[in-house]
Amino acid sequence: MVELIKVADILRSTYYYWEKRLNCTDKYVDVKVAIQSIYHEHKGRYGYRRIAKELKKYGIHPDPKTINCLMNAIGIKCEVRMKKYRSYKGNVGKITPNILQRNSTAKKMNEKWVTDVTEFHLFGEKRYLSLSLIYVMAKSLHTR
Question: Is residue 56 a contact partner of residue 49, using CB atoms and an 8 Å limit?
Fold first, then answer.
């Protein structure tokens, strides 16, 4: 053994540390079996966060990061990824000409109407918000 430590050029304490670790049993055997059963029960759609919630139902409470490490050690991971938002930068629909050319002052009420449409996601669906603005001449409001 002493020759092996010298040839490997490691510390004696390191050798005995690893020898002790190789002989001890894995304390996460039951958790690994539960993780695999939940994973296969849900056809690989559950990641470590959802598996952690399922394990709590069984009365097993390891840290979610520990579950992630155990899943990596077993060699399983969630097959379904959440779709990320990707905006399409191209010509979609008809683009109207810019008639105002940033001239937002008006001589009378209801002369210039402007709108803007904003797209946002709510509960996994696209929603659109359109705001309409009426421009009035600023001088006429102050002269009253």
Answer: no
DSSP string, 125-143: EEEEEEEEEEE--HHHHH-
Count of beta carbons in the 10 Å neighbourhood of residue 137: 16
105 or 25, higher pLDDT: 25
Alpha-carbon distance of 109 to 134, in angstroms, equals: 8
For residue 5, give Cα distances in angstroms to 9, 10, 23, 44, 140: 6, 6, 19, 44, 93
> Residue 60 has which token pair?
């097993």
- 71: pLDDT strictly greater than 60: yes
Both tokens assigned to 83: 């779709």
98: left (phi over 0), alpha (psi -120 to 50) or beta: beta
